[in-house]
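yo

u said u wanted the structure for the complex thing, so here. seqs first:
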Amino acid sequence: MEISFSRLDEDIARFTLKDATPAFANTFRRTMIGEVPTLAIEDVMIYDNNSALFDEILSHRLGLIPIKTDLSEYVRRSECSCGGEGCSSCQAIFTLSVEGPCMVHSGDLIPADPKATTVSTDIPVVKLGKDQKVVLEARAELNDGSEHAKWQSTLACGYKAYPVITIDDNCDACGNCVEECPRNVLKIGKKSVEIADGKLEDCSMCRLCEKACMASGIGDKPAISVKPDTERFIFVVESDGSLPVKDIMTSAFGIIKNKADSLVDVLNEISGAI
Amino acid sequence: MEIKVIELRDDLARIAFIGEGHTFMNALVDEILRDPEVDVANYSSEFHFTDPVLLVTTKGGKKPVDAIREAAVAISGNCSGLIETIEKS
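structre next:
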């Protein structure tokens, strides 16, 4: 299997996964969405809240704020050496103390660990009127998206099969398919229709080109055909900012690999026992 | 990973995977089926919240546990290669 990136930024990646099966591509997608851990606020101790929002709504809104996560510094609370009581290696603590009139933003959360800050400082939490006040302590912990969407590290995360467009020799370059294509993938060449430079990956495989070709009265079979390549997949992965996309991808593969390795170990034990 | 062997014969294995879901099971079954000596490989969960049970039957004398192990080794190898590529880029 191979990966080739067409774009790799801190927050977004676009790449092609080659020589893979649809099952493996889907496992990779599901792991990135549901099993890569991030930090999110789980427990909130509210000392004072006379804002318009109930404590529960305020806590829920705080939970959804993305937090920058260093996976080498934190472990899950259930796996921590503190036994789940809560310590600096399984919890990131924030304090918030704001008095109105003003808007409380995510940037008002003051982190105890300077590395575990909120991704954005501009996310509105609650609007305070005159004499209204919010004082609280929030504890973020590591968990994954299968537990709750607030721990999901990805925003858009999906794939499509690589499009394969074949144009037969009987194409008369009438241009009907070029006009019909909603993504401008095709262009008129010298003798027949051609794929526009760098546009192939934009094809959504809607097959309007095939229909347009048939409508032009070419015969029983269209001169252009669009098929998915079942061994090549175009992925788009977007991070919410809590982890760089590269880390999301490596930890997703690491999670699948660990599962496979531990299955091998268990099966070796069983084979030895038989 | 925790597994529970429900049934094990020379050409059949029925194994429950504790706490696993479609994410890993689907890739595992797909990889097991690439082995030409494997006859049947599928998994099912009785309910959404119950553990998936993997059924593998083989032909030609191959042990089903070996087929599962080889598939797991292949998945692990694929992941290692991809991690290396990502880290280089």
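Residues 31 and 71 of chain B are 5 Å apart (CA to CA). Chain B is about 40% helix and 30% strand.
cya
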